[in-house]
Amino acid sequence: MTARQRLEGTDGVAAAEPGDAAPARVRDEASRVRDEADALLASLATPEGRADPYPIFARLRALAPQHRSASGSILLTRYDDCASVTRNPEYRAQSPAWADRVIPGWRDSPGQVATFETMLFRDPPDHTRLRKLVSGAFTPRKVDSLRGEVAALADRALDAVADACADGGTADLQGILALSLAMPVIGRLVGVPETDWRHLRASISALLNVVELFTSKKELAEADAAALALRRYFADLVAERRRSPLGDLASALVATRDSPDARASGDGSRLTEEELLQTLTFLFMAGVDTMINLLANGTAALIAHPAQAELLRGDHGLAAAAVEEALRYDPPVQFVARVPAADATIGGVPVPADSLVIALLGAANRDPARFTAPDRFDISRTGPAVLSLALRSRGWRPKSSSAPW
Ligand code: HEM
């Protein structure tokens, strides 16, 4: 489901709306709150809202922390609500089965299929099966073995920035990060060769529109075209790895799919050909886009807070804390969506089964109930775990003993 579908329409009913018996004054107030909250949501789609959504989140949190939008989606802006929903196994993914029940015609949109059939949008047992197939590529030992190469790539990216800025010039930081750092790292893991990085970037950006909070018809059409182009690309890559395997994830997944016992089962139950292509596309996209945005947002925050940059220059031991603070302050993924398996309530607001609950992670990370002076970028801060990775409940528990779940 695209965000456009989540939030479109103007005839919704606020979740906290009082019953018919409520005095007119109370009904008027509820209606004013609902209208203002809807207007705030709409303002997130403006250029100003996209550039700096945080004042809007703050107002929404103060006004209607569990707001039911006109389309019936519930938007959460409080840390505790977002944390408990993202980590509660009773809140499921927007799975294909859910989409079949709720979004007519989604299977006719290649962009939505390429998105909603990936592991991110699956529940167990499919989620467990798909995740297990790729987790071998991300063991601590494998990730650690990339350390030297990543450091050399980071040096190269910094040199490119320095060259571009020499003599008073400007650097396209996102472009440099994409081609000099993110794509080389994820491309090597997944198996996408350097010659293809540049043209894949446009398709990835277009497909990612499916998971924006607002998606126009034009953007959805572009996402559909991008999904088809990416499918063709990865089908060719898989054919190539079938002929000549390498040490990358594409080759490993082909080997899994073509293994004698998978062939013997005959039903593709370990990994279908479509899942193979979707998994490669998703990993490439998930890794590249987030990495570029985290580094670009973190750099922007350091430039805007020179004293913090100075602190970091003076003590490289603060690097991990600076990354954590960049994740909190301006997270690359601004929201995740969940679907309650049964009727529930959040903060007293009824949440019917199968409705869409959107945890606004960027808002949660700036909740003053959880973070002191939340709008301050402070790499020395201590506090609860940031929600920017929105880890699902399965087997994961936050380190902080003060966490409410
Ligand atoms: C750098 C910052 C990153 C951020 C902020 C980030 C954020 C997220 C978020 C919010 C989710 C959704 C979790 C949920 O719905 O519960 C997610 C899922 C995922 N991300 Fe990332 N991510 C980052 C980097 C990466 C990288 C480098 C990769 C690897 C190539 C990656 C691969 C994945 C995968 C495979 C999932 C699905 C996990 C699952 O469904 O179990 N991410 N990420």
Protein architecture, described:
A hairpin with a 5-residue loop joins strand 1 (66-68) and strand 2. This protein has helices spanning 3-7, 24-43, 47-51, 54-63, 79-86, 96-102, 110-116, 126-135, 140-145, 147-165, 173-190, 197-208, 217-243, 249-258, 260-265, 273-304, 306-314, 319-329, 361-364, and strands at residues 66-68, 74-76, 91-92, 335-340, 344-346, 349-351, 357-360. The chain starts with a helix and ends in a 41-residue tail after the last helix. The chain is built from 19 helices and seven strands. The chain has a single domain (18-364), classed as Cytochrome P450 (Cytochrome p450, Orthogonal Bundle). 56% of the residues lie in helices and 6% in strands. The chain has a five-stranded mixed sheet with strand order 1-2-7-4-3, with helices on both faces. By secondary structure, the protein is mainly alpha-helical. Residues 1-19 and 394-405 have low confidence and may be disordered. Helix 10 runs antiparallel to helix 11. Bound molecules: protoporphyrin IX containing FE (HEM).
